[in-house]
């Protein structure tokens, strides 16, 4: 019998965020990019003033719209941070504390800013 | 191990899949900027809107769209690996069926999102 | 130069028998140190290749008596009947134990273990785990053995000799293959569980490691090898490689046809062909009869030709795709990969190949050899249950039942045996090491290892095949004597010590030549036909007057082995006619009426 | 090598990566020409080299039928079983044979299996019965359906091809690795077993499932269709749920 010396991991929480973000991005990512980045700016298939200030504000002030935006930004950020951090490892780039801070710290910062901004928009 | 992923086409595809995270990251920042602008008032928001209309932004978003679609495709491609064996009517469900179900769900979600945008149009 | 390890029980071989013995020893007394030595990692042992299944009476309409009868009849009455009695009574508990340890036996819908039909068995009593039964048994045993901290494994350690002091086996000498260093493992009792010797023949189903090492180790120290002439040919193997298509193919309903598509077995006392399937008839007859029928068909020119010799067809098409994939997945894969054949579409060409060594190290019903302190279990041993022909699925059961007995007996022996002075043992071990070292450093030889090995294997096939004649066996005996001489002139390409597999092969060839001699001389001396030993030179009948006896081959040093005989223990089944098919049913009906 | 190899009309070039400790400073390629038939495996090709050309070539093999797991090697850069790979595939080109990636070479095509076996011993790789039962009470009941939940994961022959395939194992050898994660899952998914909680700690450690980035190549090379990638990745879900449960103060390891 052998006992392996195990290092407990905090990966599960990161992985859950990664997974949730990945699923959200897989389901809605392409259409979000299409709508906000192509269709509306080009006025193609959707009217160009779909995102006029009052409409955008209304959307962000509605609880559902607010929740959707928060979920997308926060979870996308953690998804991307987690994958990019692992890619650093895959490429043999440094994965020490500073890389970790850059990736996950970045995601945390994005989350914080998003929540504050969305909160500031009020209901 | 240096450059290992170039040694085998399978690994190259893996790397492509991982790189889709960059698309997700960039788009997250774009959205974040939008939300911050929105919170900063109408002028800032209009600035964001016009930036979105610039040719550079259009080109970037075209690229992001490719990245997002690849992400969605590869996400559902590996989904069967992350699930326990499923049985329907006593027979195990094939991996490809799970992938197809996932992709179908993505199409439905995208359509719903588009429909929502359509419904909200002025 | 020589490390020493002090164990209580040393087990040579970590296949099914060795692992079962180790677990038994560890369970019976956790205070004993068990050294488990194997030349390959345990899960590589050849038990891994067993496909079909393992016997154990479970069905209500079955009985121990019937398992006993099938075994004794199948063995052509050369079985130790008291040992068979013990054996059949222990099979089922052992199979259940394996189940408790996790063995993934195939199940019935109600959750109980399923059993299948097997050649020579009158009632379905073969437990199976798809067609990977040996694989699952071996991995289950290996993984279970990890539970026991008192089992100290010596993986990839090659045993080169036993140490024997004052008429008692005291341990083994092993070579650490990776480093080339030797270790003396002292023990109060030694169990040999090194498996069979099938690779002394050319075309065989056995793995490369099945070279009869343990038999030769015991034999050199004066322990007789019993009934070595009985080598089982399996009727359905891949031409060329000899790889096995399990008997379960026929158990599941597969049929054998010749080039005309005719089920030729009905011409050889195994018919009639219909209705089908019937136990102990046609394709479900015993292996020796089926292999012999092939030989006759071949003589009559009714076989099909392949690049690797003649063959007959194993036809599984009527079982249908679904059943084939579910019950015989490994067979489908083998046929597909090696032959490019999908058994659902086309029959598989098969021919007999050497499969199992019925004989082995002489031991009593409690696995003790005549050399005190030395035990043997599994295919290397002759505990007396297979007689002149083993029934399929009896040997996986054997290694569970007698592996356990050997472990328990060895533990008991180790506890009661006082230790002796290490210096004598070390001296002996050093001599053994020097002898083995000589093979690599030798500079005057010119013989190529593979040439000697190939000539041996070809000669065994010529002389000790499915049918045998005096002159042919004599020629093989002569050839083996010549090869042993030439072996002394073998020169290796490789003179290093770390991972020198050529060196190991050379030691193995030394073992093989001696075991081959025991086989050939035992065969030559048996002037009758019984089970797997069939003569066509005037001794075509069984001769119970002269040969209801066990053959005992004794080591003769550089000379030929001495052949002697021992009694067969008959308790309640006197020799009768070994009939299968309709004739067998008549005989049984008659016997039933007489009772 | 089967004897009727003499009928072979074709000859193929086999390049073997040799390393003899003490002789070679580092591994070197050596080329051999070997006759072959349609059903000649790479293993038989190597055996022909050893028998007839150079007896000092070392490699592991035994069963010749893809079940003992001895003969894994890199064949044209892909981890495969030599006994289950046929020379015909590479002809008229040559074939390059090297020891398995990611493991220390001991000699020629022989790599050290020590890390694998050491880990195997540490993962509770045996059934810990959920409820005790004596032999007299007979077998545990298990329906074919319950068997199906772990059957495929019980088919691992410990050939280590997936270890040579997995870049994460290459980058960090502490990773328990695909094959053994499949074995852990084999027992966790067995309806008779009761040690899931114990094995959950392995799954949830840094060296457990969290080292895997779902490359998936392990399952591609697995000769026994064990699908180790599935075992690893479905345990990320199990592991994460377990982790949440434990944090929430509930007993982990359930379900
Ligand atoms: C293809 C095939 C299919 C079979 N199918 C069935 C079946 O369906 N049912 C059935 O009942 N039987 C079957 N058999 C027979 C059965 O599998 C064997 O008889 C049995 O597995 C032998 O087990 P063992 O433990 O005695 O030896 P093995 O499993 O062969 O183990 C031998 C051990 O000894 C070790 N060893 C050998 N020499 C040395 C040495 N010099 N130093 C150190 N260690 C050494 C080896 O490393 C190995 O660990 C089959 C056999 C074959 C070949
Ligand atoms: S999972 Fe597959 S590749 Fe990995 S060790 Fe097991 S059998 Fe080999
Ligand atoms: S290749 Fe390695 S990274 Fe995961 S899916 Fe397989 S273990
Ligand atoms: S020789 Fe056994 S797996 Fe290839």
Describe, in short, the structure shown.
The complex is a heterotetramer of chains A (123), B (122), C (595) and D (255). Chain B has 122 residues and is mostly helical. Chain B has helices spanning 9-40, 42-53, 55-78, 95-119, and strands at residues 87-88, 91-92.
Q: What can you see in these coordinates?
A:
The complex is a heterotetramer of chains A (123), B (122), C (595) and D (255). With 122 residues, chain B is mainly α. Chain B has helices at 9-40, 42-53, 55-78, 95-119, and strands at 87-88, 91-92. In chain B, strands 1-2 form a two-stranded antiparallel ribbon. Chain C has 595 residues and is α/β, with parallel strands linked by helices. Chain C has three domains: 2-51 and 134-232 and 357-423, 3-Layer(bba) Sandwich (FAD/NAD(P)-binding domain); 235-355, Alpha-Beta Complex (Flavocytochrome C3, Chain A, domain 1), CATH 3.90.700.10; 429-549, Methane Monooxygenase Hydroxylase, Chain G, domain 1 (Up-down Bundle). Chain C is 37% helix and 18% strand. Chain C has helices at residues 16-28, 64-74, 81-100, 133-145, 213-220, 248-251, 287-299, 320-327, 329-339, 394-416, 422-441, 449-463, 470-487, 501-525, 544-547, 581-594; strands at 2-6, 9-12, 34-38, 54-55, 115-116, 126-127, 151-155, 157-165, 168-176, 181-186, 189-192, 225-226, 231-237, 255-257, 304-306, 309-315, 348-357, 360-362, 374-376, 381-382, 467-468, 534-535, 549-554, 562-567. In chain C, the strands form six sheets. Chain C has a five-stranded parallel sheet with strand order 7-3-2-11-19, sandwiched between helices. In chain C, a hairpin with a 7-residue loop joins strand 23 and strand 24. At the C-D interface, helix 3, helix 4, helix 9 and helix 12 of C face helix 1, helix 2 and helix 3 of D. The complex binds flavin-adenine dinucleotide, iron/sulfur cluster, FE3-S4 cluster (F3S) and FE2/S2 (inorganic) cluster. The site of FE3-S4 cluster has 13 residues of chain D, from helix 8 and helix 9. FE2/S2 (inorganic) cluster (FES) binds next to loops of chain D.
Can you tag this structure with a few keywords?
heterotetramer; C: 595 residues; alpha/beta; FAD/NAD(P)-binding domain; Flavocytochrome C3, Chain A, domain 1; Methane Monooxygenase Hydroxylase, Chain G, domain 1; 3 domains; 5-stranded parallel beta sheet; 5-stranded mixed beta sheet; 16 helices; 24 strands; 37% helix; 18% strand; globular; D: 255 residues; alpha+beta; Ubiquitin-like (UB roll); Fumarate Reductase Iron-sulfur Protein, Chain B, domain 2; 2 domains; two-stranded antiparallel sheet; elongated; disordered N terminus; binds flavin-adenine dinucleotide; binds iron/sulfur cluster; binds FE3-S4 cluster; binds FE2/S2 (inorganic) cluster
